[in-house]
Amino acid sequence: MEDGRLFNLPVMTTFEMNFLLLFIFLVLTTAGILIYERYKRKQVVEKTAANHVLTERDFEKFSPPLVAQLIFGRGAYTRHITAGLLNLVRKKILVLDQDKEGHYYFTVEGASETPKAEDEKFLYGWMLYEVGKDGVFHIDDLYNFTEERENRETFLHKLYEWEEKMKNELVGQGLFAVFSPFKRVLAGISLVMVLLGSGFIIASPFLSILYLAAGLATFIIMLCYSSMTHAGRYEYQKWKPFIYDIRKSSAEKFEETGKISVSYVYAIAFDLKDTYVKKFPVREASQLSLRTDQFPLYFAAAPGTTALSLEGIQLIDELESSLEQIISPIAYSPDEADDSGGALTE
């Protein structure tokens, strides 16, 4: 006490005490904002979405590649192209047909619908009119289109552009926010703390350390916090049970709900195709047995038993294999790929 010190700590002036109280207020405000944000996400959004059952409207609104970006993270992979094309067939925007040699191809001829979502419009135009010709896309068109290095690089950039389309679509639907109001508030508080901490470096090192440390911590929290909005979290929770069903539910559940086809197409986008196919018996079938507007191609093997066609599974495997052979060498070749392609293939 004699030298103005208590336990070797400096006695704070009234001015410093006021700024200490301000610091406590800012910290408590930040903590309150974080707690309230977590409360809204967990108690309101997640509980509301938990009882929601997906309807055809949900499948119409969100294409398989778009849902995959929402649930598993953004990116454009070969499975997304495959699922996207099959989903266009499922929605009657494309038709899957066979040529005289028995090879399957996608065509706009005979389709009764047109693409509406931006990601679907892009994929439709890209694969049917740029890679394919005049609204017809054969798997062999991938090889023909990418024989030249310039076209191969164009294909990769188109893949990246499609990824950006999906990202912008998620933002446009309010499912993601580049810089949400919540993050803006945290950034503002962080900035105030850092500025005050910088001002106290000489006058009060103790307050300076407090403000700078808290400002840095708040800034890191802001950067690490998910950009998914409450609407995005709501959709995320809606789709989680569907993904769980694809992983764990029996074939009978899909037969009862009539979702054999739609579940298969989304399973491809979720990288769960093999898991889904194993639920059903696989049989060979004649061409007349198959309906090419259904995926996987399937038929009733016996009363109450659905079997997947070997032809249909081979078709999907061939398409994915072709995409992998073309895209992967581009993305991983230091001589032929630029930096934008490294994150686009698995």
Provide a descriptive summary of the structure in words.
InterPro entries: YciQ-like_C. There is one protein chain. By secondary structure, the chain is mainly alpha-helical. The chain folds into two domains: 5-51 and 179-224; 56-176 and 230-341. The protein has helices at residues 14-50, 56-61, 64-72, 78-90, 118-131, 140-145, 149-172, 181-199, 205-224, 230-248, 251-257, 260-269, 273-277, 310-332, and strands at residues 5-6, 9-10, 95-98, 104-107, 136-138, 282-283, 298-302, 305-309. The strands form three sheets. The protein has a three-stranded antiparallel sheet with strand order 3-4-5. Strands 6-8-7 form a three-stranded mixed sheet. Strands 1-2 form a two-stranded antiparallel ribbon. A hairpin with a 2-residue loop joins β7 (298-302) and β8. The radius of gyration is 27 Å and the shape is elongated. Residues 329-346 have low confidence and may be disordered.
Topology:
Blueprint: E1 5-6, E2 9-10, H1 14-50, H2 56-61, H3 64-72, H4 78-90, E3 95-98, E4 104-107, H5 118-131, E5 136-138, H6 140-145, H7 149-172, H8 181-199, H9 205-224, H10 230-248, H11 251-257, H12 260-269, H13 273-277, E6 282-283, E7 298-302, E8 305-309, H14 310-332
Parallel strand pairs: 6-8
Antiparallel strand pairs: 1-2, 3-4, 4-5, 7-8
